[in-house]
Every structure is written in structure tokens, then in C-alpha cells.
Write a structure and sequence with these properties.
Elements (H helix, E strand, L loop, with lengths): L4 E6 L4 H13 L3 E4 L10 H13 L5 E6 L3 H7 L7 E3 L3 H11 L3 E5 L5 H13 L7 H11 L1
Parallel strand pairs: 1-2, 1-3, 3-5, 4-5
Helix pairs in contact: 2-3, 4-5
Length: 147
């Protein structure tokens, strides 16, 4: 069975969580694509959102994960890209519902807002929840048609 491929990107506020996620996901059967950044040196988050979204929208990666201080900037940048349905999640239920109802393909997290343990639980929920389809297909298509 082919591994699910996930693109991960972060700015200087989120690179520590990203590194831990890559180690965790790799140990749990996922293939990870690290687009950076990998240091605390200040960088511009839209650059990393662009890299992750390009990999997801092209189909090279099934999912993307973006981490900055609050997750807000990354989610705003990600949702500018066609075919991207990015969700900023700060709790497990939002993570579950955005996959279930919105077929979100990019998860955004705030490393300065939630603990690493909570972020990991949110990530696991995001990856383990399937889109339910049904009447939500029409709504997801409407989202995709906006851009």
C-alpha cells in the first residue's frame, strides 16, 4: 500500500512543531515533504504556504500542514490558492468536522496558541477522519468554484 504523502511548512514560530510532526508522521507510515523553514530566523509565512499549497493542489501530496504563531496568517495565505481548503483548527472537534464536512486538505495550527500535545491530537484527528460526502459534496464544489 502506498504511503500517504503530506507536505509540511512553517515559519519561524512553527518550525519546532513541524520538525516533531515530521518525525512522528514518518514513524507512523506517512511520507513527509518538508518545505521549510527549519530555524528560528524570521521568515515570511506566505512563502511556505505557497510551497505546501502547490504540492497539495498538484496532487503530489494528499494533505498539507502549515504552522505559524497563531495559524491565522497561514490559513489566510493557503486559502488564496485554487483547490485548497485550509482550516485553522485549535481543537479536536473542529479538526474532525472540517474533514468530515469540508473535505479540508490543509491543516493550519498556531504554535503559540496550542500546546504540542494538543496540536498532535488535532493532527491525528485530521488525518484519521474521512470526508463524509453526501450533501457536503455540493458545498465543497461551491467552495472550489469561488477561486
Amino acid at each position: 500500500m502506498e504511503k500517504i504523502k503530506i507536505a509540511l511548512g512553517a515559519d519561524h514560530a512553527g518550525y519546532v512543531y513541524k520538525a516533531k510532526f515530521i518525525e512522528y508522521l514518518s514513524q507512523n507510515g506517512y511520507e513527509c515533504v518538508n518545505v521549510g523553514t527549519d530555524t528560528a530566523d524570521s521568515v515570511d509565512y506566505p512563502v511556505y504556504a505557497e510551497k505546501v499549497c502547490a504540492l497539495v493542489s498538484s496532487g503530489e501530496c494528499k494533505f498539507g500542514v502549515l504552522i505559524c504563531g497563531t495559524g491565522i496568517g497561514m490559513s489566510m495565505a493557503a486559502n488564496k490558492h485554487h483547490g485548497i481548503r485550509a482550516a485553522l483548527c485549535g481543537d479536536v472537534e473542529s479538526s474532525r468536522l472540517t474533514r468530515l464536512h469540508n473535505d479540508a486538505n490543509v491543516l493550519c495550527l498556531g504554535a503559540r496558541i496550542i500546546s504540542y500535545d494538543d496540536a498532535l491530537e488535532i493532527l491525528n484527528t485530521f488525518l484519521s477522519t474521512s470526508f463524509m460526502g453526501e450533501h457536503h459534496v455540493r458545498r465543497v464544489k461551491m467552495l472550489d468554484d469561488l477561486i
